[in-house]
Amino acid sequence: MTALELESVSRQFVTPDGGSYRALDNVSLAIPAGAFVAIVGPSGCGKSTLLNIAAGLVAPSSGSVRVDGNALSGLNRRATYMFQQDALLPWKNVRENVALGLILAGVAAADANARASEWLARVGLSAFAAHYPSQLSGGMRKRVTMAQNWILDRGMLLMDEPFSALDVHTRQRMETELLTLWESADDRGPERAALRGDTNIVARPFQGRDRAHRKTVIFVTHDLEEAIALADEVVVLSAGPASHVVARHAVALERPRDLFELRTSPAFIDLYRLLWAVLRDEVIKSQRDA
Amino acid sequence: MKSSRASATHSGAVLAWQIAVGALAIAAWQTLVTLGVLDAFFVSRPSDIARRLSTWVASGTLWGHLATTLEESLLGLTVGAALGISLGFGFARSPMVARVFDPYIKMLNAVPRVVLAPLFLLWFGLGIWSKVALAVTLVFFVMFFNTYQGVRDADKVLIDNVRMLGASERQLVRHVLVPSALTWIFSSLQTSLGFAMVGAVVGEYLGATRGLGYVIAQAEGTFDTTGVFAGMTVLGVVVVIVSAGVSRLERWLLRWKA
After folding, report:
1. Co-location of A106 and A163 in the same domain
2. Which of A75, A161, B241, B258 could form an S-S bond across to A56 if both were Cys, CB 3.0 to 4.6 Å?
3. d(Cα A180, Cα A118) in Å, to the nearest integer?
4. Which of A97, A132, A153 is a domain's end point?
5. Which of A57, A89, A134 has the CB atom closest to B158's CB atom?
């Protein structure tokens, strides 16, 4: 099944001097449910615009967006969004931030807090439930944000360079935690079904690595290494203006992946060479224009 | 822990210096008057001022005046804040209204408040309400501009994030816009409170039957410089005490800030 489908999507912006800037030009992209897709491209190539269109925060100037087969109008309620910048509410403590989505959905406070506590345990931040975001390190804030997104259990996760502000070691750790969460969705499938009262699935033994229970992740980054390390498929966007898809490549590295070893494996390096050959030209173009 | 203890000894040193500076200034004042360099008729002298203050305290006349001034200030602060915050919010949420009223708001804010005082006396009488009105005109604009800015400056990413998490417009206002504006409003609480007291005292000064401003005006009328300085001293002390309280309140309300 296709989780997200962009068809000939273009987007123009009005520039401050009254002209128009074409960020995206005729982008068509179909992303299967449960896939982890990375979108790479040089800075200013419209990656974030693409993600904002998928989120429904920005409407396309032309073309259509379908989510789970239905035309998207307004915000994408099947998705949560992890922004590049910190987006935790500074005046709410960690637990309140994680519970926020549930509270907004009308879940009773006691229930929401209990579930937030479970999620804080999963991301290893139980001891920091009463802290405010300003009292946490950058890596901790990202983990809170992951819990805040994941607690809603929506099918799609949009991520806009979520770890780019972190130092390289913290970043690798966050990438590992992201993959762990994402892959562990397999095991939580039956459990969630049980919560919904769907006992058939629980009775079925060995759910296995059933993709259908994984979230669809669309991960925007300018870092090709990160893209290959995390994703099932890498999409390369051309330099702006008028960005379009210049390459798509499947990443056939097996899961679960050991991110600390992966980057030196021959398969990884081959893929990197292949995709860098494409991305390099776009990066050079973007720098010549800048 | 360590740093908080370090800052505690540090603030102890600051307090000691603050007292020393005050004591030195008072001693210099007293000495200069005693030596005849300054004339006590024009600048009074600290010992006389202290004596006058203790008379006021002993006879109990001080408390009534002080209570009146504080009551006017507090009412002015409350009414001014209520008006400023609600209008600021309304303007920030409806850009059209904001643009239409923008020149009028600026014009009104440019009016020197002293000019308004006689009008308010005419409209609201000699009692506390003319002073409250004057305080309101000062507090209102501080609160209005801060609320307006606070709502307009609310972080775009926070708004997008909360909307993606499922917030309705009303929830967006409650969870993001109001708290964002509140940080601006709390930060301006000190200024607002100071303005409220200025409004009350100036109002009393220009026409009243009670209050610290009235006491000062009466003393000036009889060339009683000791009375004027005693009144100013009371005002100064009250402001320091109240603003220490406001600082604590502000620290508590904005405790989530690093």
Report:
1. no
2. A75
3. 16
4. A153
5. A89
Look at residues A130, A153, A176 and tell me which one is the last residue of a structural domain: A153
Q: Which residue of A has its CA nearest to B168?
A: A104
Query: What is the chain A residue with the closest CA to B170?
Result: A104
Smallest Cα–Cα separation from B213: which of B68, B17, B45, B46?
B68
CB-CB under 8 Å, B257 with A89: no
Tokens encoding A234 = 């890498």
Asked if A125 and A245 sit in the same domain, the reply is no
pLDDT tens figures, A14-53: 888 888 888 889 999 999 999 999 999 888 788 899 999 9
Are residues A149 and A178 located together in one domain of the fold?
no
CA–CA min distance B143, chain A (Å): 20
pLDDT tens-digit readout, A208-238: 445 557 899 999 999 999 999 999 999 999 8
Residues A279 and A167 occupy one common structural domain: yes
Beta strands in A112-253 (DSSP E): 156-160, 216-221, 233-237, 245-250
Residues in A closer than 8 angstroms to B255, CB to CB, are 132
Distance from C-alpha of B62 to C-alpha of B50, rounded to nearest angstrom: 13
Report the residue of chain B nearest A145, measured CA to CA. B161
Q: From the CA atom positions of chain A, what is the Rg in Å?
A: 19
Please list every residue in chain A whose beta carbon sits closer than 8 Å to the beta carbon of residue B171: 104
Q: How far apart are CA A283 and CA A289, in angstroms?
A: 10
Nearest-neighbour CA in chain B from A131: distance (Å): 8
Please check whether residues A243 and A171 belong to one and the same domain.
yes
Burial B205-230 (b: 16+ CB within 10 A, else e): bbbbebbbbbbbbebeeeebbbbbbb
Please check whether residues A145 and A178 belong to one and the same domain.
Answer: no
Q: Which residues of A touch B176 (CB under 8 A)?
A: 89
Write the CATH number for A251: 3.40.50.300
Q: Between A79, A89, A134, which is nearest B258 by CB?
A: A134
| The pair of three-digit structure tokens given for residue A20, joined into one six-digit string | 């128009």
Q: How confident is the model at residue A195 (pLDDT cuts 50, 70, 90)?
A: very low
Residues of A in contact with B165 (CB under 8 A): 80, 100-101, 104, 148, 152
Model confidence, pTM: 0.78
User: How many beta-carbon pairs below 8 A join chains A and B?
Assistant: 62
Matching residue, tokens 């006021």: B56
Assembly ipTM: 0.86
Number of domains comprising chain A = 2
Are B165 and A77 inside 8 Å of each other by CB? no
Torsion angle of C-alpha atoms A62, A68, A73, A75, degrees rounded to 10:
-110
Q: List the domain range (segments joined by +) for residue A59.
A: 2-78+154-289
Q: What is the pLDDT of residue A259?
A: 87
Determine, for residues A83 and B157 on separate chains, whether the beta-carbon distance falls below 8 Å: yes
Tokens coding A260: 């600390």
**CB within 8 Å of B201: residues ≥ 6 apart:** B69, B211, B212, B213, B216, B235
CA atoms within 13 A on the CB side of A220: 24
